[in-house]
Design brief:
heterotrimer; A alpha+beta (about 375); B alpha/beta (about 450); C mainly alpha (about 325); A: about 375 residues; MetI-like fold; 3 domains; five-stranded antiparallel sheet; three-stranded antiparallel sheet; 14 helices; about 10% strand; elongated; disordered C terminus; B: about 450 residues; alpha/beta; D-Maltodextrin-Binding Protein, domain 2; globular; disordered N terminus
Chain lengths: ~375, ~450, ~325
């Protein structure tokens, strides 16, 4: 027995490490997005996100003051100023774009007859015996070390976006009925396909599998036309019906296969006891199928939550009808170049689905509920 | 004294917020605007009180706000109510909505091809015939614009189906003036000079061009702009038009020459930042960043007037970066061709107010309100160009007004399968190492299979 | 608030409506054909023939309108020309066979079908088994599940941060190239590196679908009766033996379901290809090709629908396999 225990603990270690490895591998890409959502656009496109934790070398330029900024110091004309921002430190500087790091801090050089000195703390001083006449300042190129910097500006931009609260409500209004209704309808159908005998059962099951593959795009035009013709038009009723229809095949398929696996004896004995099919369904099948119902609920919720296509087609996209994905898309702008907003909105829209996942997780375990019928 | 000051400041603040919600420029105040045209329009369309219609377009975010700043003037003048909705999947949505029988009243098409397709199916309402003549008379290169919006209707008869409002210029080369000064380069006046400059920069051990074709699902389109611009500089405008309708085959030597000309720039490892391999892989949004690096990753970047959106934050156009007209060959006598784009407004329902809105767009004031802000160019010759929000816009506007030939982005005129498909892919393959002949043949063979 | 009431009342009406239908129709059936009295036997038999259709009714109605009708519509459109104004017979299908992009898509779809379901199911099974045995299992599960919750646009950005290319020697912002460069290799343009770019796209889908497989398989694994495992432990079976010889065979049915579902997702794969390459550099797949023809520029419904029909026909083997399975279950 001792040997078993030793073996067991080393196995536990192996399992823990393997799980950790898998989780890390799966999380790295998302972690990149999370880190990026706290950076600004220029940072995202210049350095890798994994380097955002360490201080970064950055080259940029600063303009000196122009003629109007000069002060007279004895018989010298002087321009002075700061080259580095708060927390940055200067590592090199230059006066030509081609060689931005030509000089070390503390050195001096000649610029058009003036002497330019840059000190180690990032102050520059340009002295000349003749008055400066340029209308725009000279460029001084600096290579600076900046400490890691993060911003929550992206989040405040997204969360304060116009109409986001309304959109949240709209999304909820779309999502909840579009999750609950298909589950109900599918559960009954799945029970019939799993436990009732009738001609055409196999064919019908196969047809459901076949319908899983129907590309949504072919359904949009005929269905919207149908909605317009029968007077539903664009609106919540239309989108609920559409999501129900599109979600049913997966729901029926998952639930049927789960229900088939339920213990036959339980159902047979209930039938012998004179229970009606409806009672069997409600008292035995439904409670036993909770894990499958919960997992499908999660998937349907996710799908509806993240959907933009069905929403724009069946709900319309006026201000009052916009869903979350629609508002986020608007924030990203016409050309979709705002990656920082993309990253941020991805994390904001993921919050609710994850909450649902956590809430549903305890229902995913069949053992808990199945225990009650083990004796039967 | 102090008290009075505070009071008047509060007053200004009050009136400012009241005006902001409605009209961004107070009518009658700024003399540069053509307010008379607004009054005139209002007087002619007084019977629209209380009518409403909606507009569906591709503009989102900033562009949407700008367009929505123009609408209140129409509402003020007519009393009608307008609602604009933007969609990032506009192309798809307009097709679905109109096919399903619930079209918007007005649609804003970014591509003539899509509008022509819907016109052929009878989804668009024809515009009055006088409007065609109006475009010819009042737009610079008016014939080009009028042809752009004249399509065959469901019965095959040619009619005006859209009105062009808002243009952009694609024939621009962006550069950093101070980098040019440092290196002693000069802005080229001819395409020959531009090529010499390219070679010179490369000889100096630097990289002349930043070219990026990446655009996610639309990867390749920046190359089509290059080829179109060069097409207009090698061949006649008539050849260009024939090319967009495939009367001039895609694998015609004239087209292949233009593709090869693009290859001269893009397929030379010494001429492009990151080497030829990175041309197709670099995102067009990130491509101009090379101009602003130290040392510069490149000195030149050819891209349309919208690209400043993707410059680093705080970049001042005219100071930190500037542009010049993508020049024409001096040896070839083709004038000053300009490649551009624009958006086209169509009416899809029998809404009276919607039709009036199209007429509103013809007034100088409808153009000037947006001109005075940002991101708007117009070929309308009747507007006051002093209104342009900044000097840069004015200079771009001048390129448009001085154009001897204006041609619309050819890939938008070709059938979708070519202009938004085979042409893109073909250019990616071309940059990837295929010969111009092979790429052109591939595109032509796709075109041959179209019904 | 008004909206909230609307949503709540919809749920209530929807749920009550469904319950009323199922309960009410069953009740009516039982009163017409009571399962007792002199004709009990005959009544039960006859009611048994009707009842399945009461249970299936609403589902069949929905499937019929929202899926079957559009499919029939597509079949019709696929026999028409681009603007659906003229009957062209099989022309669109004839064109498909000769089109090089279609051939490329078929080959790529086939590759996707081989790789993605297998890897997703495998990783999902491993993840389910591992996370069920550790304390922080639920937390680990949530992290592996997270990709499923991210919209495809988000996924596009995430993987851009992995595959992004910068020229050799430059600061890499793509993780993969940063690693390659740190190890002394040359950075690659992964998404245009034929034919491997297909596999880089597949990895994205595996990354997303593993969460799905894990959730379903984990529920199945936990459903295995304790007694069978305890018996095996007493017999001295090693953990590997328990897993492969006891657990896996017991959940074979669920594995098949997961495999099938992912296979169908793969057939429909569109978003990933659309966002990352749009089918360029030899990565075209059927669903994206269909989208191109249906909605890009000037739409061609004929060809778009023909591709959709091909897509739907490809699922036939899975349907046949399912019919056989159901027959077997019945016996």
């Amino acid at each position: 027995m001792d040997g078993m225990a030793g073996q067991k603990s080393s196995l536990t270690w192996a399992v823990n490490i393997a799980a950790l490895l898998l989780v890390v591998l799966w999380t790295i890409p998302t972690a990149g997005l999370l880190v990026s959502s706290f950076r600004d656009r220029d940072q995202i496109s210049t350095t890798g996100w994994w380097k955002s934790m360490t201080s970064q070398e950055q080259s940029s330029f600063v303009r000196t003051g122009a003629a109007e900024d000069q002060v007279q110091d004895g018989d010298l004309y002087v321009l002075e100023g700061d080259l580095v921002g708060e927390g940055q430190s200067l590592s090199a500087w230059g006066t030509s774009a081609r060689d931005p790091g030509a000089f070390a801090p503390g050195e001096s050089t000649d610029v058009d007859g003036a002497t330019l000195t840059v000190t180690e703390d990032g102050q520059y001083r340009m002295e000349s015996t003749a008055p400066f006449e340029m209308r725009r300042g000279e460029r001084i190129f600096v290579i600076t070390e900046s400490p890691p910097s993060f911003t929550t500006e992206n989040y405040s931009r997204v969360l304060n976006a116009q109409g986001i609260g309304r959109a949240f409500m709209n999304t909820m209004t779309v999502t909840i009925p579009a999750t609950v209704i298909p589950i109900l309808i599918a559960a009954f159908a799945a029970y019939a396909l799993a436990w009732m005998e009738f001609p055409g059962r196999a064919l019908l099951t196969a047809a459901v599998v076949g319908l899983l593959v129907v590309p949504l795009q072919v359904a949009l035009i005929p269905l919207l036309r149908l909605h317009n013709e029968i007077g539903i038009g664009k609106g919540y009723l239309g989108i609920w019906l559409a999501h129900t229809g599109f979600g049913l095949p997966l729901a029926i398929y998952l639930l049927r296969n789960y229900m088939v696996g339920l213990p036959r004896e339980v159902i047979e004995s209930a039938r012998v006891d004179g229970a009606t099919e409806f009672q069997i369904f409600r008292k035995i099948i439904l409670p036993l199928s909770f894990p499958a119902l919960a997992s499908f609920a999660i998937f349907q919720f996710l799908w509806v939550w993240n959907d933009l296509l069905v929403a724009t087609v069946f709900l319309g996209n006026t201000r009052d009808e916009l869903v979350m994905t629609g508002v986020l898309r608007e924030l990203m702008g016409s050309r979709g170049g705002d990656w920082e907003i993309l990253a941020t909105s991805a994390f904001i829209s993921i919050a609710v689905p994850l909450l649902v996942f956590f809430a549903m997780q305890k229902y995913l375990v069949r053992g808990l509920l199945a225990g009650s019928v083990k004796g039967g | 004294m102090k008290r009075i000051l505070i009071n008047s400041a509060a007053m200004i603040a009050l009136t400012a917020t009241a005006a902001q919600a409605q009209l961004i420029f107070e009518p009658g105040e700024d003399e540069r605007f053509n307010w008379a045209s607004l009054e005139e329009f209002g007087a002619a369309h007084s019977g629209l009180e209380g009518q409403r219609f909606n507009i569906l377009g591709p503009w989102l975010g900033g562009d949407q706000e700008l367009f929505e700043s123009v609408i209140p003037y129409f509402e003020e003048a007519t009393g009608a109510e307008v609602e604009y909705n933007g969609s990032d999947s506009f192309e798809q949505q307009i097709v679905i909505d109109s096919e399903a029988g619930s079209p918007p009243d007005v649609a804003v098409f970014p591509q003539p091809g899509l509008a022509a397709g819907l016109a052929a199916k009878g989804q668009l309402k024809p515009l009055p015939d006088e409007m065609r003549q109006w475009i010819v008379d009042n737009y610079a290169a008016g014939e080009s614009w009028a042809d752009l919006v004249t399509y065959a209707g469901p019965e095959g008869e040619e009619q005006l189906y859209a009105f062009p409002y808002k243009a952009d210029v694609k024939s621009l080369v962006w550069y950093v003036p101070e980098n040019f000064e440092d290196a002693g380069y000069e802005v080229p006046e001819t395409l020959e000079d531009l090529k010499t400059l390219t070679e010179q920069i490369a000889e100096d051990g630097e990289t002349p061009w930043c070219i990026g074709l990446g655009s996610g699902g639309a990867t390749g389109w920046p190359a089509t702009d290059w080829v179109e611009d060069l097409m207009l500089r090698i061949n006649s405008p008539e050849d260009y038009d024939a090319w967009t309708t495939n009367e001039l085959k895609f694998n015609d030597p004239k087209v292949i020459e233009a593709i090869d000309e693009f290859g001269w720039f893009a397929k030379n490892g010494d001429f492009v930042a990151g080497g030829v391999g990175s041309v197709a892989a670099t995102d067009f949004r990130e491509s101009p960043a090379g101009l602003f690096e130290f040392p510069p990753n490149c000195y030149l970047h050819r891209q349309a007037s919208f690209i400043p959106t993707f410059f680093p934050e705080g970049t001042m156009i005219g100071e930190d970066v500037d542009f010049f007209y993508f020049p024409a060959f001096s040896e070839v006598d083709l004038g000053q061709p300009v490649l551009g784009g624009g958006t086209l407004f169509s009416v899809l329902t029998d809404n009276e107010a919607a039709m009036a809105f199209i007429e509103f767009l013809q007034t100088p004031i409808a153009q000037e309100i947006w001109m005075a802000q940002t991101g708007f160019l117009t070929p309308h010759t009747g507007v006051n160009t002093d209104v342009y929000g900044d000097d840069t816009l004015k200079r771009m506007g001048d390129i448009l007004l001085n154009a001897t030939t204006f041609r619309f982005d050819g890939s938008d005129l070709m059938p979708g399968a070519i202009g938004a498909g085979a042409f893109w892919t073909g250019m990616v393959d071309f940059v990837g190492g295929q010969s111009a002949e092979d790429s052109a043949n591939a595109i032509q063979s796709t075109w041959d299979t179209l019904q | 608030m008004e909206l909230f009431l609307l949503a709540v009342s919809t749920i209530a009406i929807g749920v009550l409506g469904c319950v009323a239908w199922f309960w009410g129709s069953n009740y009516v059936l039982d009163s017409i054909l009571p399962p007792r009295g002199p004709n009990a036997g005959a009544n039960i038999r006859r009611a048994g023939m009707v009842r399945p259709w009461l249970f299936l009714g609403p589902a069949i109605l929905f499937l019929g309108i929202y899926l079957v009708y559009p499919v029939l519509n597509s079949v019709w459109l696929s026999l028409m020309n681009a603007s659906s104004s003229r009957f062209v017979g099989g022309d669109n299908y004839g064109w498909l066979i000769g089109d090089s992009k279609f051939q490329e898509s078929m080959i790529n779809n086939f590759l996707w079908l081989l790789v993605v379901p297998a890897l997703s199911t495998l990783f999902g099974l491993i993840a389910a088994q591992l996370t069920d045995r550790i304390r922080w299992g639920n937390f680990g599960k949530s992290l592996i599940f997270m990709p499923m919750a991210i919209s495809f646009v988000g996924a596009g950005v995430i993987w851009k941060l992995i595959y992004e290319y910068r020229e050799a020697g430059a600061e890499q912002i793509g993780l993969l190239n940063a690693i390659v460069q740190a190890l002394g290799g040359n950075p690659q343009t992964w998404l245009s590196l034929q034919p491997w770019n297909n596999f880089f796209l597949m990895i994205v889908l595996v990354w997303i679908q593993t969460g799905f497989a894990m959730v379903i398989l984990s529920a199945a694994l936990r459903g295995i009766p304790e007694e069978t495992i305890e018996a095996a432990v007493l017999d001295g079976a090693s953990p590997w033996q328990i897993f492969f010889k006891i657990k896996v065979p017991q959940i074979m049915g669920t594995i098949a379901v997961v495999w099938t579902t992912i296979t169908i997702t793969v057939l429909k794969v569109f978003d990933i290809v659309f966002v990352m390459t749009n089918g360029q550099w030899g990565t075209q797949v059927l669903a994206n090709l269909m989208y191109d023809w249906m909605f890009r520029g000037t739409p061609d419904y004929g060809r778009g629908s023909a591709i959709a029909i091909v897509l739907m026909v490809l699922v036939l083997p899975i349907m046949i396999w399912n019919i056989r399975n159901v027959r077997k279950e019945m016996r």
